[in-house]
Every structure is written in structure tokens, then in C-alpha cells.
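Input (structure):
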């Protein structure tokens, strides 16, 4: 009513984000829907953190109709925004890509942020390779949750791999 375009865009993105995320309670949906869910989350945060980052989403057309576990990208994108984007600069960049790798699908989320220090990267890697989580764990629960859901559905040959280089991103 007031003509505030940012509020209008954010409310529309939030409605789409929730609609796709809820997906009528289904555990799986198409890769196309998973990418749309991540895109809406990115749009909401672009309004929230005005001019701090840009993003691209690249997917091979042949993978878009494949089924995937829902909400595997959004927590990773959330981490990229939280830890990989400097909210005081305008040069942040996040890229999401999906491609076929043999019989599997490879989802990648990259950012051009500061990177993860080696000790934290090792701790996160250890957390992801463990099937139990310590109640004292403060960081990595979102990654752990995604990894566990992937393991339970597809087996231990699948899951999250972290790669980061200080000063270049994750």
C-alpha cells in the first residue's frame, strides 16, 4: 500500500520460500524446486543485506527433474551468507551449481569469502564424518543434519565435503 518495493519483494520471496520449503510435507522434491527454495532465500537476504553480494545458480538442464531430499541447499547458503559474505562490502559472491557426476548429482555452493581456518575446517570435517553429535557442539549442526539425511537415504558414499582456502572462499 505504501509503495515500498523492497518490502513487496521480500514478502513475495518469503511466501515462495515457505511454499516450496513446506512442499505439502513431502521429503523429496525436484532439483528444480530445491534450487528455487535456495534462490528465494538468497533474494530475501539480498534485500536484507543491500548490495553486499550477488549470486548465480547454474544447473545442467538434464538434472532439474531429478528428485532430491528437500532443504539441503538453504542451510549451506545460510552459512555462506553468515560466514562468507562481508556485510560492509559489495563484492560478495555466492554460486550454486548442480551437475551429474556419474550416477550421482553434485550440488556445489561456493563463496568468495575469507575461507574457514584450518582448525575449524578439520573440526567440521570430523563432525561430518561422525554418526553422532555431541550436545556441546556449537557449530555445524545444519551441515551435520543435511549430511545425516543424505547418509540415511543414500549411504555413506554420499554426503557433504568441505573445501576452503583462506582469503579465497569456501
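Output (sequence):
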Amino acid at each position: 500500500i505504501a509503495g515500498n518495493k523492497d518490502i513487496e519483494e521480500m514478502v513475495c520471496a518469503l511466501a515462495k520460500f515457505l511454499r516450496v520449503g513446506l512442499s505439502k510435507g513431502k521429503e523429496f522434491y525436484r532439483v528444480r524446486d530445491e534450487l528455487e527454495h535456495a534462490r528465494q532465500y538468497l533474494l530475501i537476504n539480498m534485500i536484507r543485506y543491500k548490495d553486499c553480494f550477488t549470486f548465480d545458480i547454474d544447473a545442467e538442464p538434464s538434472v532439474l527433474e531429478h528428485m532430491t531430499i528437500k532443504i539441503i541447499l538453504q542451510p549451506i547458503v545460510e552459512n555462506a551468507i553468515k560466514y562468507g559474505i562481508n556485510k560492509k562490502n559489495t563484492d560478495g559472491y555466492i554460486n550454486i551449481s548442480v551437475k551429474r557426476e556419474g550416477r550421482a548429482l553434485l550440488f556445489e555452493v561456493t563463496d568468495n569469502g575469507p575461507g574457514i581456518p584450518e582448525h575449524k575446517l578439520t573440526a567440521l570435517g570430523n563432525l561430518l564424518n561422525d554418526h553422532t553429535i555431541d550436545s556441546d557442539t556449537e557449530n555445524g549442526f545444519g551441515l551435520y543434519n543435511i549430511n545425516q539425511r543424505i547418509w540415511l537415504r543414500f549411504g555413506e558414499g554420499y554426503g557433504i565435503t568441505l573445501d576452503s582456502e583462506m582469503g579465497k572462499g569456501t
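Notes: DSSP finds five helices and five strands in the chain. The CA atoms of residues 95 and 110 lie 5 Å apart.
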